[in-house]
Amino acid sequence: FGLGACGSSSESTEAATTEAEAASTEVEATTEAAESAAADLSGSKYLSDGELTVGLNATFPPFEYVGDGTDNFEAVTSNENNVTGFDVAMMNEIGKRLGVSVVIEDMDFDGIVPAIGTKIDCGATGMTITDERKEAVNFSDPYYDATQGVLLPIDSEVKTEDDLKACKAIGVQGGTTGETVARGINDGAVVSVKSFNQAVLDLVNGKDDAVVIDQVPGEAFLSQYSDKIQLVEGSTFNFDVEQYGIAMPKDDEVMLNAINGALADMKADGTYDQLLEQYVNSYEAE
Ligand code: GLN
Fold first, then answer.
1. Which of 86, 239, 272, 278 is the one with CA 20 to 30 A from 6?
2. What is the pLDDT of residue 39?
3. Strands of 59-60's sheet in order across
4. What separation in angstroms does the CA of 192 have from each of 10, 44, 196?
5. Residue 199 near residue 173 (C-beta atoms within 8 A)
6. How far apart are CA 283 and CA 95, in angstroms?
7. Residue 221: left if φ>0, alpha if ψ -120 to 50, beta else—which one?
8. d(CA 264, CA 286)
9. In this predicted model, what pLDDT tens digit does every residue of 135-156 receive, in sequence order?
10. How far, in Å, CA of 200 to CA of 42, rounded?
11. What contacts 166, CB < 8 A, 6 or more positions away?
């Protein structure tokens, strides 16, 4: 599958100027954009305090996970639990560009959306943009294309949706799109637990017949337990393409625009791709 969110073309904001002018003022314009975004935050209900509190569930490698201390912990900001990963690095970069400090809150996935605007300022946790969630929160522009995949015991014969229907225990992390997909296939078999670490452990220990999980995190868990589990790609089951977005409170347009601006700048100047390369690309299927 492709990385629809990166490398998209028209990030330029100099549409009104000639090409020559645009080229010569590009650096200046980027700086101005960053400065005005930072200045704009005085009107932000949640960011005017200079702090961006980010909720995530750190059982979703390589987007957020508890590292073993050998990772690049430059990415870790204000969290004592060594939470690292792509989303942490992305949010740190956004915080830097907006001139706010980033605080990481590791919490249950299903508690993140309800906490946005109260306990946390935003959620950045490989969260799929869905219509249902959009009723409760604003989403940033999409930043990553994903799909669900299926982890199975290494000797499993499951290959089709009908095979999945016949499974007795399908593990999911509560509140995820994986849970929705699994319930659509075989509601009665769904075993909903608090974390993907738990769901994968249950699979490895023979308690579950399958786990529905986003494909790239599935690859990351596979690399930890490659002697015990296998991954079947979502395309085999015709699962939909999903897009990740940063979830924010509905009542802060200033924050929404500032975060989208920082994200667009990161994509335009190559920082975004560099972080993908550092954290994510090695887990993608060819
Ligand atoms: N992308 C999935 C969702 O939004 C899973 C995210 C996660 O578990 N961190 O539901």
1. 239
2. 47
3. 59-60, 64-66, 83-84
4. 41, 37, 10
5. yes
6. 26
7. alpha
8. 26
9. 999 999 999 999 999 999 999 9
10. 44
11. none
Letter for the amino acid at 204? V
Q: Return the structure tokens found at 86.
A: 């792509």
- Chain position carrying tokens 């706010």: 100
Does 69 have pLDDT greater than 70? Answer: no
Distances (CA, A) of 51 to 41, 48, 94, 100: 11, 8, 12, 5
Q: Which protein residues touch ligand 1 with a CB less than 6 Å away?
A: 57, 60, 109, 125-128, 173, 176-177, 214
CA of 230 to the centre of ligand 1 (A): 20
CA–CA distance, 223 with 227 (Å, rounded to integer): 9
Rg (CA), the chain: 20
Q: Which amino acid is at 215?
A: Q
Beta-carbon count within 10 A of 240 CB: 11
Q: Measured in angstroms, how far is the CA atom of residue 128 from the centroid of ligand 1?
A: 6
First to last CA, the chain: 8
Tokens for 263, please give them: 């994200």
Output the pTM of the full model: 0.85
